[in-house]
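Request: Show me your protein:
***
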Amino acid sequence: MKRSLFDTLSDSIELEDALNAGAVSQFVSVKQAASLLQVSERTIRRLVATNEIPAYYIRSLVRIQWSDIMEYVEAE
């Protein structure tokens, strides 16, 4: 089975480099954010619901900006 880019990037430095190079979208899904932070999707949804991490809604889709995730991680 082919692994996604998010599965193969091992740390945030590599991902940040990829973002800066335009190789990865600036926005991630709840599932991708959970995988990147190694938490459950429920945790990400709770952080979004309590406005700890801002999110953007496109109909029923939730997208989170990578820079907002990094700000949250650095603040913790």
